[in-house]
What we know:
alpha/beta, Peroxisomal Thiolase, Chain A, domain 1, globular
Amino acid sequence: MRRVVITGAGSINALGNGTRAFAEALRNSRCGIAPLTLFDASGYRTSCAAEVRDLTPPAWLKPAVARHSSRSDLLALIAAHEALAQAGADSAASGLGIVLGTTVGGMPGWEEYFRQGLVGQRRRRHAVALTLPVSTSVDVLAAVFGCSGPRLTLSTACSSGSNALGVAVDWIRAERAPAVLCGGVDALCRMTFSGFNALQALDAVPCRPFDRDRAGLTLGEGAAMFVLEEREHARARGARILAEFLGYGVSADAHHITQPRPDGAGAAQALQRALDDSRVRADEIDYVNAHGTATPLNDVLETRALKAALGARAHRIPISSTKSMVGHCLGAAGAIEALACIVALREGFVPPTLHLEHPDPECDLDYVPNRSRPHAVHTVMSNSYGFGGNNTSIVLRGVG
């Protein structure tokens, strides 16, 4: 079977712009959750979110593209630019494919367009509708970077980013593309903010994964993008390899549109399939980046799933939720958390779970409370679970 490696990574989220800023924030246990400024959050259950501050079009982006780019487009472009530069990838010559996971597309711009109309501020027609579909960002990426390979948008709720990486691996294994630009993106918008508030799924304070007093998630936004390649293709062009993508597993709860299966069976099945696809034993896993949303159901079921799939190993490895730092970035979550795993592999520490002051007795694993921890990491797993019972787990391994 063809082996797939990661040669480029890029990121932007509430912890900063670029992978270096992200890594330093993880090491220093910094929280990106703060009062929301993108729109008026008064009257909601919470007014905090993990927002990307001062997002502006980068200088390298053509003004005509910048004018018509949605917030999601800009986040994806910034992360992709860094990933391609790090990989040294010639996207036009290589037939680079693109797979992108997302959920809201250009909704923030669409909402602002209608707000202006309601208050009488809109004076001219604008092609904002063209930025709305979730498929738009991948088309913008392809046009800006000249990617001539296959492209695809995935929207499987909060597992979208992880699934994008998995599909990219499948393409490379099947020789559909020698290299693929892949990842996830989502921007904060009123629709998701009000929707999660209506579901009473948001905590009034920054989220507290695995804490007995947790009361819901905190929304975030951002993007993480990667260049994946067949290993010999990367070696032939002298690319630096960041990590190897060993495999992934997916499953469906077939249970409820928003609630996960309480027994964690679906999540455990995705974990086991990821181990099988990767040909990795449970006792080889050194760190798990948990889905860890801080909702009452999720954290308990994930604990059960980890125990079911990893057995005794689950009690002996560090597990953390970086959503306590960057919020829940929906379609981008799995990609951002995959990047956190690469940071752990390359820099020899595991990120913390912030705000974990009173551990839930039902969440009795090592959830790395409040401070990052030096730790030798060789093989890692990341979990992403989404509405509709979309479960995905991925396995990465360090190199060198």
